[in-house]
Amino acid sequence: MNIDGIPTRTLRAHPEQRAIDIIDQTRLPHALHWVRVRTLAEAAHAIRAMQVRGAPLIGATAAYGLAIAVAEDASDPGLAQAIAELGATRPTAVNLHWALARMQALLQPLAPAQRLAAAWQEAEAIAEEDVAQNAAIGQHGLALFRQLQREQGRVLNVMTHCNAGWLATVDWGTALSPVYAAHDAGLPVHVWVSETRPRNQGLLTAWELAQHGVPHTLIADNAAGLLMRSGQVDAVIVGADRIAANGDVANKVGTYLKALACADNAIPFYVAAPRSTLDFACPDGNAIPIEERDGDEFRLVHGLDHHAQPAAVRQLAAEEAVANPAFDVTPAARVSAIITERGVCPASREGLLALYPEESRD
């Protein structure tokens, strides 16, 4: 991903200083601000407060957070406490728990004196694998986009929801990786960007697409159905926070509505995600926990005031009862295909196991 023409990743590791730098995504799109994370508490706060967000980036940040924690306390109780604290930050995104389980499996058998170097090395491996997997997702998705564009014979109009781009990963993105691959390959592509209330992650998508020079248009969430029905959308592609073993997909709330509109208008609905988002231990979407976030995310609207300073405007009284579920579940039957680093498959247990036969329990 480019910022002002310079290739940039969302996370910078400083093992010699036992710290990482992250982009404070709560300040985007109005300001690009890097934050240094030096403690376990700061790492947990960054995930919980959505300074970092997006399932793959949450996983990588948690891995580095555990490495930072080991520098503070490498004992068995210290390791267990750090895993528990990081694991409690976000319940829905399975990448977080996948990364922590992978780190624990490596570190637990080691003597405390050996854990620090091993933790940083493994966190780095997780981050590099994320980059490679997302790049592969881009190439597999590009093949689908090429076919659609040949059929349409014009600019390919793709719609997305939430932010599943570079900002949601270490690099490339999941749902936006095929978009970047198409743009870089010279394939004419335009992106309809859904605002994604109430946190407006679509504004982050628009910001990063603009940085990379990809044509796009930001829309209100409720305009999506009209655009589909009027023939202005060729495909919808989203990321995921967890994919169950049967192909059900948990993603940002509002995703299910777009999948339904796609089904009604014969538009392909694609989900792009790496292996770390697949939860083969989760039988179906009914078993996926749905995070309920603070109601003030809905009651308050954040932006800039007339002095161009960050400000919050209250649209609802503090006592107004609100529901703020962060995710919904799209049934596998509404998913045209799942795009992973290993290829494209149907949204089904059989389809996923064809790509990941090692996960078969038979």
From TrEMBL:
A GO term for molecular function: S-methyl-5-thioribose-1-phosphate isomerase activity
Site residues (Transition state stabilizer), renumbered to this chain: 162
Pfam families named among the record's database cross-references: IF-2B (PF01008)
The active-site annotation reads 241 (proton donor)
Q: Binding residues for substrate, per the UniProt record?
A: 53-55, 90, 201, 251-252
Pathway assigned in UniProt = Amino-acid biosynthesis; L-methionine biosynthesis via salvage pathway; L-methionine from S-methyl-5-thio-alpha-D-ribose 1-phosphate: step 1/6
Keyword Amino-acid biosynthesis carried by entry:
yes
Q: Hey, what's the signal peptide range on this chain?
A: none
Spell out the InterPro entries in the cross-references: IF-2B-related, IF-M1Pi, IF_2B-like_C, Initiation_fac_2B_a/b/d, M1Pi_N, NagB/RpiA_transferase-like
Q: Which UniProt keywords apply?
A: Amino-acid biosynthesis, Isomerase, Methionine biosynthesis
Q: Which domain of life is it from?
A: Bacteria
- EC numbers listed for it are 5.3.1.23
Q: Catalysed reaction(s)?
A: 5-(methylsulfanyl)-alpha-D-ribose 1-phosphate = 5-(methylsulfanyl)-D-ribulose 1-phosphate
Q: What does this protein do?
A: Catalyzes the interconversion of methylthioribose-1-phosphate (MTR-1-P) into methylthioribulose-1-phosphate (MTRu-1-P).
The record's family statement is: Belongs to the EIF-2B alpha/beta/delta subunits family. MtnA subfamily.
NCBIfam families hit by this protein: eIF-2B_rel, PRK05720.1, salvage_mtnA
The protein depicted here goes by the name Methylthioribose-1-phosphate isomerase
